[in-house]
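Give me structure tokens for this 142-residue protein.
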Amino acid sequence: MQNCVGEVLLLGIFAVTAYRDWKEQMICVYVPLAAGIAGLVFHLMLPTQKLTDLLLGAGIGAVLLLAAWVSREEIGYGDGAMLMASGIFLGFWRNVELFLTALMLIVPAALFGLIVKHRRKDYRMPFLPFLFVAYVFQLGWR
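Here you go.
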């Protein structure tokens, strides 16, 4: 039951942020921050995983935030922030699985954009819609 509540909460957060990322190509910084705080409170009240696993899961997003800083935001800060929040909900291995699944989904979409839509290689694709779809797939596998 407690996992179900967390899954639905994270699904809703992903849906809202993915929609905004798709339409506006930006994410309000308060949404991932609130999601991370909600995830911590949720897991402190109903512990389902070790705190170290949650922090390691958030570390994946922290690495992406560092990559965004190094690349001068070629990778968006919002993507890293949402991966930090999802890591707090999912833990390390499920967050790795989520990130890799989203990458496997975005690569064919990017190739389609380059080849069929003739987009330039500097075209910026929003990543959160792919994280959302990857999370839906992940929920379907469980």
